[in-house]
């Protein structure tokens, strides 16, 4: 099996315009179809449902697997602590690259090869979330608006990353997706079907975090047709399915190396 590390690829170079505030846990990212020795890859379990999300992900859309480090979520929560203590939300953007698995008829050797947007068709591969970008932002107790988004795009473009979704806190609310959250996430899922939203709710005793997606096609259709802004109710999908659901294609991987760019 051919094994590539992140340091061998063009996207691994540091972005000199921004300081890397954190790199964890090791200088090497192993990319294999199975977990390398010593690593732990865990499927993210589905938590209890609420009125807009269900416990059984839909099978209407076949998605590529996504790996993310659980440590990334913990580190983001720590970086958001000052805002959380003030009952202010904090948001960040997730960047990932795609590894396609190509089998070559050279004995029994399997070569793992990296592909980057827009050079691939996103089939038969796995996404690895390796970058968290925390932009300048305006926050309230129930919303968070990213500022200077061109700085985020610059990092993504220089590293050839897919916009894999976003992460944000609910400092004093429960773990759910608000109507504003759904509209924010719609743009990510339109670009990359595998994109997901992470909600961290440290005061929710029943579910401290959730990893969500809009349902396809029902939830996506509702958001596409909705022209309202601010907090507002959404109509139920015509087929009776929920607007959003827990992800079934996301796995935590203890061996993932990641970097955090805090631009605040």
Explain this structure to me?
By secondary structure, the chain is of the alpha/beta class. It has a single domain (65-233, 242-262), classed as Cytidine Deaminase, domain 2. 17% of the residues lie in helices and 30% in strands. It contains five helices and 14 strands. Strands 1, 2, 3, 4, 5, 6, 9, 10, 11, 12, 13 and 14 form a twelve-stranded mixed sheet that branches. A hairpin with a 4-residue loop joins strand 7 (137-139) and strand 8 (144-146). The protein is globular and about 40 Å long. Mean pLDDT is 77; it is low at 1-37, 46-60, 107-111 and 116-122.
Mean pLDDT: 77
- How far apart are the first and last residues' alpha carbons, in Å? 42 Å
* Oligomeric description of these chains: single chain
| Secondary structure tally: strands | 14
Number of helices: 5
Poorly predicted regions are 1-37, 46-60, 107-111, 116-122
Summarize the structure in short.
With 264 residues, this protein is an alpha/beta fold.
């Amino acid at each position: 099996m051919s094994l590539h590390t992140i340091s061998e690829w063009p996207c691994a170079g540091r972005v000199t315009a921004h300081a890397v505030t954190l790199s964890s846990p090791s200088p090497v990212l192993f990319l294999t179809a199975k977990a390398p020795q010593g690593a732990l890859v865990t499927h993210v379990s589905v938590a209890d449902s609420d009125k807009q999300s269900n416990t059984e992900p839909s099978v209407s859309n076949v998605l590529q697997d996504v790996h993310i480090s659980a440590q990334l979520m913990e580190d983001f929560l720590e970086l958001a602590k000052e805002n959380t203590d003030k009952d202010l939300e904090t948001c960040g953007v997730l960047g990932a690259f795609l590894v396609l698995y190509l089998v070559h008829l050279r004995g029994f050797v399997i070569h793992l090869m990296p592909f980057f947007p827009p050079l691939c068709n996103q089939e038969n591969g796995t996404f690895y979330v390796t970058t968290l970008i925390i932009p300048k932002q305006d926050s309230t107790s129930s919303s968070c608006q990213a500022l200077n988004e061109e700085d985020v795009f610059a990092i993504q473009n220089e590293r050839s990353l897919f916009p894999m979704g976003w992460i944000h806190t609910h400092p004093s609310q429960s773990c759910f997706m608000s109507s504003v959250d759904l509209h924010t996430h719609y743009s990510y899922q339109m670009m990359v079907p595998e994109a997901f939203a992470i909600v961290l709710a440290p005061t929710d005793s029943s579910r401290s975090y959730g990893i969500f997606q809009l349902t396809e096609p029902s939830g996506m259709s509702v958001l596409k047709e909705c022209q309202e802004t601010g907090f507002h109710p959404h109509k139920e999908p015509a087929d009776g399915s929920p607007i959003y659901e827990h992800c079934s294609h996301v796995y935590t991987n203890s061996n993932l190396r990641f970097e955090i760019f805090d631009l605040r």
